[in-house]
Design brief:
Blueprint: H1 17-23, H2 34-44, H3 57-63, H4 68-82, H5 86-118, E1 124-129, E2 132-137, E3 146-150, E4 158-170, H6 172-175, E5 181-182, E6 200-201, E7 206-218, H7 224-234, H8 241-270, H9 275-289, H10 293-311, E8 314-316, H11 320-326, E9 330-333, E10 345-351, E11 354-357, H12 374-385, E12 390-392, E13 402-404, H13 407-418, H14 423-429, E14 432-439, E15 444-451, E16 454-461, H15 463-469, E17 470-474, E18 481-483, H16 486-501, E19 505-514, E20 525-534, H17 541-550, E21 554-558, H18 563-573, E22 585-586, H19 598-605, E23 609-611, H20 615-627, E24 632-636, H21 642-647, E25 650-654, H22 660-665, E26 668-670, H23 675-720, H24 728-747, H25 770-797, H26 802-820, H27 840-858, H28 862-866, H29 872-883, H30 885-900, H31 909-912
Parallel strand pairs: 9-21, 9-24, 17-20, 21-23, 22-23, 24-25, 25-26
Antiparallel strand pairs: 1-2, 1-3, 3-7, 4-5, 4-6, 4-7, 8-26, 10-11, 10-20, 12-13, 14-15, 15-16, 16-19, 17-18, 19-20
Helix pairs in contact: 3-5, 4-5, 4-8, 5-10, 5-24, 8-9, 8-23, 9-23, 9-24, 10-23, 10-24, 11-23, 12-13, 15-16, 23-24, 23-25, 24-26, 24-27, 25-26, 25-29, 26-27, 26-29
Length: about 900
């Protein structure tokens, strides 16, 4: 009975009001009996949606251990404990806990912030039961209930109107339609889209004015809102690009580590090495191969980006979303409130005396005093008088603080307010004595006002209806008038249509002097002109769109509004650069991508504006882009946007006007609802990825050098009587100290100037490409050679005993790591003029690391655990000299690359080549 999808029975919007009442066996004058209510509640349950479970503390904590890098470290720690290497095992466990703690508290704070945004109160509704009108909790509604609707009510369930008196409903949260919809009792065709079902009310929308009665047809999850909620639950949220990349890197490192350990163990045993030595070597290799600092660096870099974005009005729900923004190649943006101000304003007035462009602050763009144009002032006055909205100036600061009513009427009141015609004061001079409410059939509204001895009638409405009712038109002086013939009427029709094509909501304005309040309001009117209202583009939107184009990011407008309105905003914002007539695709052309023709697919991929789009169609559009390998960001504010927000790689909800459903599904919430904040977030995301890539390059170059040094010593050391150059705890100390602090410093860079002039990274591109791995192998081999040379010289030339020689090789690698940071400057940069030298955190990290390395040798207790010995002056001179070799060679290569490399080439291009 509650389903409107039965093949044998027309849907509710295609049936008459009486047919729907008969279907639910209810008399509108009596309502349901308590017995019927009880039976139907047992059948249909409470009128509420399933609530998505909030992420618990335990869930957030466990998510910190999902990375493959973390899992490999867990394995290494387990092996250490299994073979009773307690110090190594405890040290690895400490690293894991530090990373988990940082990630947990940062993400926990974000989740708690989001939960505060989601907190909303319950709603009540007037309902008729047992011939009595009563107010109940909306959760207690059942199908068949008769509800009484008034302006300001939140619609509590899907319902069919059975009585309507000038009912206007704001359906933006459900359909994306920016203007309130006028509701009628007449049924519509069965295949009519939700946005055009004028006889239906839907859960989650709001009545802005009028009154009426309706019979509830669906409750809870059976409503359109419930259907959208199910779409959100079923929409698969893919792992973010950074998560995928880190997992791929972790898996690759895991296999490399296992393979190396097996090969070296075999070769070592074959060469006659002791079993104990091979176990120690295996642990050392496991610790050396994994960049323990990588999760910490990535987490802190993302957390810092999260903090920076929060200062720029972007609240991040999940840490990896920070980086994913930087990979965005397509932004699907709503129109209302994101590209536009979400505030209707009077922007143009067309009169027989001339056309006027209205400024938001002053009344005329040309700087003229509006009071010098009586006809313009009269049109504004009629708009203020013929009005049901209200403004209130609470603080007496000459700016309205509270507003209630239809957005179009509020815009007219504001225009009057700024022109010195406040409605309350105006009504004191011209009191209202009668109102003829807006009627759907007539598409006009009229009010009667006593003005001295005269009785004035103020009229506004659809231009075509107003013009049909006018027999006269005012002259330029605003006082006299002349006859309006068919030719003149047609010319004004054309002007109204031209305004509408530019995206304006157009009103016809007229008046007349009446003899009494019984006079017909719409006969023999005097035409005054046209009022064009617009939700204007946000300031700075055009420049933000241009920045996206420079960054290779496509911006696609997806709106529930009409095609003409969407096209107009597209022209004004230049969403398609240089296109005066942008193409618009209707939502019904967005079928499932798997069933789409290649021609339609290509056309959709090349179009930037989509109108009258449903939730399912938004999902199809996102899936199409993702199938093309594009990283998608989706903005939204309504419940209709929730499934797409969840499906997109990055869901961006509006904080000011966004619904709870949208905020819950999103990865990021914009506090200011501004498109420019999205662009700033993308910029920060790109900087973060570049910084993480530099950090990973730094850590892997040095970690692979450790692996090579240990592996070569394990295989050939027995023949050369050389010890393993790095002990497990020494490697862990290096990885946590001389890896983490410089890597963190690299992660604090403010980025390159041209970061928003590059094309987005491919969706499947790894953190490290083939070129990066080649560079890692080359640099690692050089540093490993330096370590082994230092060990050999200390042992054979300087005659150092076992642990003292190992200390030299340990410090050679440590200081070599620190100097290597400067090799990561970009090709084309100068040694003293690049983002690394200018980064104060880099210098600070190096000073800190040098102090910690000195402590590793000279601080009692620490030197005992690490098994280090004082290398003496000769040892220090040897290790400093050898550790500088990679820096000298690197800077020599940079000088060569400076001469031949284009500075605008991608990051690390010179190193790879």
């Amino acid at each position: 009975m509650s389903s409107d999808k039965n093949d044998q029975i027309p849907p509710f919007h295609a049936q008459s009001a009486q047919q729907v009442l008969d279907r639910f066996e209810v008399d509108p004058g009596h309502g349901l009996s308590n017995q019927h209510v009880k039976q139907r509640r047992e059948t249909y349950g409470p009128n509420k949606l399933r609530q998505a479970e909030s992420r618990s503390v335990l869930q957030i904590l466990l998510e910190q251990f999902k990375s493959m890098v973390i899992l490999v470290l867990l394995i290494a720690g387990t092996v250490a404990f299994a073979f009773r290497h307690w110090a190594e095992g405890i040290a690895i466990a400490a690293v894991l806990m530090v990373n988990a703690t940082i990630g947990f508290f940062t993400e926990w704070k974000a989740v708690r912030s989001m939960e505060k945004l989601r907190a909303i109160g319950g709603d009540t509704i007037r309902v008729r039961r047992d011939e009595e009108d009563r107010e109940i909790d909306s959760q207690d509604l059942v199908p068949g209930d008769i509800i009484i609707i008034e302006g300001g009510n939140l619609i509590p369930a899907d319902a069919r109107l059975i009585e309507a008196n000038n009912v206007h409903v704001n359906e933006a949260a459900l359909t994306g339609e920016s203007l309130p919809v006028v509701k009628t009792l007449d049924p519509v065709n069965a295949d009519t889209l939700i946005a055009d079902r004028t006889c239906m009310l839907y859960k989650g929308t709001t009545a802005t004015q009028g009154s009426g009665e309706a019979v509830v047809v669906s409750t809870g999850m059976q409503t359109q809102l419930g259907h959208i909620s199910e779409l959100s639950e079923s929409a698969e949220k893919e792992a973010t690009p950074l998560q995928n990349r880190l997992n791929r890197l972790g898996r690759r490192l895991a296999w490399i580590t296992l393979t190396l350990a097996a090969i070296i163990a075999f070769l070592g045993l074959l060469a006659g090495q002791e079993t104990t030595r091979m176990i120690e070597t295996a642990i050392a290799l496991g610790v050396a191969a994994i960049p323990e600092g990588l999760p910490i660096v990535a987490t802190i870099a993302l957390a810092r980006g999260m903090y920076i974005m929060a200062r720029r009005n972007a609240l991040i729900n999940r840490l990896p979303a920070v980086e994913t923004l930087g990979a965005t190649s397509v932004i699907f943006t709503d129109k209302t409130g994101t590209l536009t101000e979400n505030e209707m304003t009077l922007r143009r007035v067309i009169t027989p005396a001339g056309d006027f462009e209205i400024d938001e602050d002053r009344q005329l763009l040309e700087g003229k005093d509006a009071s010098g144009h009586p006809l313009l002032m009269r049109i504004v006055e009629v708009g203020v008088l013929c009005n049901n909205a209200s403004l209130r100036d609470v603080d007496n600061d000459r700016e309205p603080d509270e507003e209630h009513g239809d957005p179009t009427e509020i815009a007219l009141l504001k225009a009057g307010f700024k022109s010195g015609m406040e409605r309350k004061a105006l009504l004191a001079k011209k009191p209202e004595v009668r109102e003829v409410p807006f009627e759907t059939e007539k598409m006009m509204m009229a009010t009667y006002h006593r003005a001295g001895k005269d009785l004035e009638i103020a009229v506004k409405g659809a231009p075509s209806r107003v013009l049909e009712s006018c027999r006269r038109i005012v002259k330029e002086n605003g006082k006299e008038y002349r006859r309006l013939d068919d030719g003149g009427r047609q010319r004004w029709f054309d002007r109204a249509e031209s305004l509408a094509n530019e995206g304006f909501r157009v009103l016809g304005i007229a008046d007349k002097i009446a003899g009494s309040t019984d006079d017909e309001p719409y006969r023999e009117l005097r035409f005054l002109g046209l009022a064009g209202l617009l939700d204007p583009p946000r300031s700075g939107v055009s420049s933000s769109l241009e920045e996206c184009r420079s960054a290779g990011i496509r911006v696609v407008m997806v709106t529930g509004d009409q095609a003409a309105t969407a096209a107009a905003i597209g022209r004004q914002t230049q969403i398609v650069a240089g296109d005066d007539d942008p193409a618009v695709i209707h939502g019904n052309q967005l079928e499932n991508p798997d069933q789409m023709s290649e021609e339609n697919r290509r056309r959709i991929l090349e179009t930037a504006i989509f109108a009258r789009v449903t939730p399912e169609q938004k999902l199809n559009l996102i899936k199409l882009m993702q199938d093309e390998g594009l990283t998608t960001a989706m903005t939204g504010d309504g419940v209709n946007d929730a499934p797409a927000l969840k499906k997109a790689d990055i869901g961006i909800a509006m904080g000011r006007r966004g619904t709870d459903a949208a905020r819950q599904a999103a990865d990021m919430v914009l506090r200011d609802d501004a498109f420019s904040s999205i662009v700033a977030a993308i910029h920060q995301g790109r900087v973060i990825f570049d910084n993480i890539r530099k950090s990973v390059m730094f850590m892997l170059c040095t970690n692979v050098a450790e692996v090579m040094a240990v592996a070569l010593a394990a295989v050939f050391g027995g023949f050369l009587t050389l010890p393993i150059p790095l002990l497990p705890l020494q490697i862990l100390y290096l990885n946590v100290i001389t890896d983490v602090f410089p890597a963190l410093a690299l992660g604090m860079s403010s980025g390159e100037p041209d970061v928003m002039k590059r094309r987005p990274r491919p969706r499947k591109e790894s953190i490290l490409t083939g070129g990066h791995w080649s560079a890692i192998a080359g640099w690692a081999a050089l540093m490993a050679a330096c370590v082994l040379v230092g060990l050999a010289l200390a042992h054979y030339v300087l005659g150092f005993e076992h642990l003292r020689a190992v200390t030299v090789s340990f410090l050679t690698l440590a200081f070599g790591k620190l100097w290597f940071v400067f090799n990561l400057r970009n090709p084309g940069s100068q040694f003293f003029d690049n983002d690394i030298v200018k980064n104060p955190y880099v210098l600070g990290s190096m000073v800190l690391c040098m102090g910690l390395l000195t402590a590793a040798v000279y601080v009692p207790g620490l030197s005992t655990v690490l098994k280090t010995r004082d290398p003496g002056i000769s040892g220090w001179a040897l290790l400093i000299a050898i550790s500088l070799v990679p820096l000298i060679i690197g800077q020599g290569l940079r000088m060569f690359q400076t001469a031949r490399v284009n500075p605008k080439r991608p990051l690390f291009q010179g190193i790879e080549s």
